From TrEMBL:
Keyword terms of this UniProt record: DNA-directed RNA polymerase, Nucleus, Transcription
UniProt protein name: DNA-directed RNA polymerase III subunit RPC3
Record Gene3D superfamilies: 6.10.140.1450, Winged helix-like DNA-binding domain superfamily/Winged helix DNA-binding domain
Annotated RNA polymerase III Rpc82 C -terminal domain residues: 162-320
Gene this protein is translated from: LOC108568572
Naturally occurring in which organism (per UniProt): Nicrophorus vespilloides (Boreal carrion beetle)
């Protein structure tokens, strides 16, 4: 695994869980599969701290374990991809709020904070949290129904349960009950919420966690829709969105190519959603334009009943990846380097002399840019030898080409490096301005408390004056900097998601 990825993982663990967990996580990242004794020796931590750190990492799904060959002790493996996903939690929460409302947002926040939870505990925590924020909290039954909707949509799933009869418990999951809502009695739930002791819930021991893949399906679909909207318009994006929804009925979510989708079925859905819109009037035109586009987004699968189309998921993400890397080349170098990159891409294999002629760039500058791209691993070289003549040495010539998978992995390294720099800078800003940020939090807390008690505007104004004008200016600069850093972090994560999706389809 890469050094840059290890640095990012270390920073995330340190920020979220503290020093001990970060030390154990870094050990597992560097050493790979490790037993408990090796972790303790390598980290020089007390056994109790190592065990506690492993429990935390296992609870949040950041470490897996398996039995050794004798089945007498456990071997631990860190899940770096799951750790990186912690940066994506704000997106998950935003998806839930958009799709299911404010209650779902709080439900997901509580579940992410606890790692896993029973439905009963999740309902009570959400109810208590909403009660603090609202004078009239949502009834328990509504929260239960919201959780059931999230489970039915497969955003939540049951965790694996251990078989405890062995020295190293094996985690197993009942696939049939994976998305089945457990029975929750509201009367028992009300008693437990009111603090009545010895209340036993029917779902005791049935724990739930988030289903990352389901969120990633939404992120993937949203990415495709945005790309279609940018290339064509909102109507074309709406048609593709309906086709993606119909895809799930017929095809595995992560298939390279979908099963045929009847186009009349898609048209009927568009008619119901937008009866008198241009989407219906020009539906056939939109389908023809999307089909004939060079991006190879959809492909005709048959002629019967108006025809069926298949969505080329792998081709879509290949095209999106090419465009992303071309944009990176443009920003990292210049437009001439991007022209050379596109030329090599279109020709597959090309000689240096041909690049100089076809790119319409002076020979000296063309050679310089080509070898800069080669040095940065955006281009690769293939050497070919000519058959030797009867006398004289064998001659060879080189061809430039692009290995997309290799370039994607290299760009991922750049993303991890950028992510590490962003996280480091944000932590630096917090440390340098800690006194001022803490003061602002204290003043806000006092103001909120006084406002709740019915303080006058004059009293609230006096509290606000506890922060001087220069401090307010400094806080404005700090907030702007943190907002920019957070935005950049989310944009880098989007690039990482796109590139990892391409590699998954590869």
């Amino acid at each position: 695994m890469s050094t840059q990825l290890g640095k990012v993982v270390s920073l995330i663990l340190l920020e979220r869980f503290g020093e001990y967990v970060e030390t154990v996580g870094s050990c597992l990242f560097k050493k790979g599969i490790c037993p408990l004794q090796h972790i303790r020796v390598y980290t020089q931590l007390p056994a109790s701290k190592v065990k506690e750190s492993l429990c935390i990492l296992i609870k949040y799904g950041l470490v897996n374990y398996e039995a050794n060959h004798n089945r007498t002790s456990a071997l631990y493996t860190i899940q770096t991809s799951k750790i990186l996903l912690m940066l994506r939690y704000p997106k998950y929460i935003r998806f839930m709020k958009t799709k299911f409302g404010d209650e779902a947002e709080i439900i997901l926040e509580e579940l992410l904070q606890s790692g896993y939870c029973t439905v009963s505990d999740l309902i009570i925590r959400t109810y208590n949290r909403m009660g603090k924020d609202d004078q009239t909290p949502t009834p328990l039954v509504d929260i239960r129904d919201k959780i059931e909707a999230m489970i039915t949509a497969r955003y939540l799933m049951r965790i694996k349960l251990p078989k405890i009869e062995e020295a190293v418990p094996e985690l197993v999951r009942n696939v049939q009950d994976m998305y089945k809502m457990p029975e929750v009695e509201l009367s028992q739930l009300s008693k437990k919420q009111s603090g009545e002791p010895n209340v036993i819930m029917k779902d005791t021991g049935i724990f739930w966690q988030i289903n990352h893949d389901r969120f990633h399906e939404d992120m993937r679909d949203k990415l495709i829709e945005s790309a279609i909207e940018n290339k064509f318009d909102a109507s074309a994006a709406e048609i593709i969105r309906v086709m993606l929804q119909q895809m799930y009925i017929r095809t595995e979510a992560w298939a390279d190519t979908t099963n045929p989708i009847p186009i009349l079925e898609v048209k009927d859905i568009i008619k119901k959603l937008h009866p008198n819109s241009d989407k219906v009037a020009f539906f056939d035109n939109y389908i023809n334009i999307i089909e004939q586009d060079s991006s190879n987004i959809i492909r005709k699968a048959g002629e019967a009943s108006g025809g069926s189309f298949q969505i080329q998921m792998k081709d879509i993400f290949t095209q999106l990846t090419w465009e992303t890397i071309q944009q990176i080349v443009l920003e990292k170098f210049d437009s001439k380097a991007a022209r050379i990159f596109c030329l090599v891409k279109n020709k597959s294999y090309i000689e240096p002399d041909q690049i100089q002629k076809m790119a319409m760039i002076p020979a000296k500058e063309s050679k310089k840019l080509t070898y800069e791209l080669l040095e940065e691993n955006f281009l690769q070289v293939q050497e070919l030898k000519k058959a030797p003549a009867s006398s004289g040495p064998a001659k060879s010539f080189i061809l430039f080409h692009i290995d997309l998978s290799q370039v994607v992995r290299m760009v991922l390294e750049l993303c991890y490096k950028s992510l590490y720099n962003i996280l480091t800078r944000r932590n630096h800003e917090k440390i340098v301005n800690k006194r001022l940020i803490d003061k602002k939090h204290r003043v806000d807390t006092i103001a909120l408390s006084m406002k709740t008690q019915g303080a006058s505007e004059e009293q609230l104004g006096d509290i606000d004056e506890m922060i001087t004008p220069p401090e307010k200016e400094m806080l404005t600069v700090i907030e702007g900097t943190m907002r920019k850093l957070n935005t950049i972090e989310l944009e880098i994560d989007e690039t990482i998601f796109l590139l990892n999706t391409y590699l998954a389809y590869e």
